[in-house]
Amino acid sequence: MVRKILPMLLALVALSVMGCDKYGDVEQGRVVKYDKTTKPPTAWIVKDSGLDARNPKYDVLPAHKFVIPEVPGEMGQEPVAALRVNLNVTDKTITMYNFETNSFDKIPFELISNVNDVSVRKRHPLVWDEATRKERKFPEINATERTIKIYSRRQEMLSEIKLAPEHFAKYKAEDWDAGDEVRIYYKEDGKALRFMNVTRTNINRR
Question: Is residue 188 exposed (0-12), middle (13-18) or buried (19+ Cβ within 10 Å)?
């Protein structure tokens, strides 16, 4: 019996040693900056510290820089970058990535309205325009009232919030959106071998 088991154990050890050289790592993150003018393009992501891909925690600081794959076919759809990292309607805070400090701005807001179970995939009329057969554009900004209407694909939630003047003026309109969720496979830190745009692959997540 021992003679049969020993060769199997040795084979497993050999495979694990080979795997150290062969296999790389995978990171999930939210894109807060994307520069396609560089060759190859470069993305900055706030990485997920959680273990559940369906319930990510984008909270690893600072944003991590990755060079995008040069090999055709290893790059998914180009990501949309924005600075919103989290929207919490329970705590009434919105978390934005601040490149000046390489940290988060946790901004309080007044909750005007909130609607759950709002899905683009199911073509909910609040987020889907049946006349044009296209997704409605968010965020919606009302500069006079200092309100922002935000749609979270991942949470399937449409929220309207109101900010204090100093917070409302701090970011551009497009910054209040959420950057695309992506998964990156790499062996060398900062150099992606495979880049998957999760948000654009499955419109039910954002």
Answer: exposed
Q: Bigger pLDDT: 190 or 9?
A: 190
Q: Are 156 and 87 in contact (CB under 8 A)?
A: no
Token code pair at residue 178: 């959420």
CB of 157 closer than 8 Å to CB of 118: yes
Residue 107 has pLDDT above 50, yes or no: yes
List, in order of start, the domains of the chain with CATH numbers: 25-80+179-201 (2.40.50), 84-176 (no CATH)
Q: What DSSP state is assigned to residue 110?
A: E
Confidence of residue 202 (pLDDT cuts 50, 70, 90): low
- Residues 23-42: b if buried by 16+ CB within 10 A, e if exposed: eeeebbbbbbbbeeeeeebb
Residue partners of 54: CB distance under 8 A and separation at least 6: none
- Closest by CA to 193, choosing from 9, 46, 11, 66, is 66
State both tokens at 183. Answer: 């998964």
Q: What is the pTM (predicted TM-score) of this model?
A: 0.81
Cα dist from 142 to 8, 48, 102, 188, whole Å:
67, 32, 28, 44
Kindly tell me if the per-residue pLDDT of 41 is higher than 50. yes
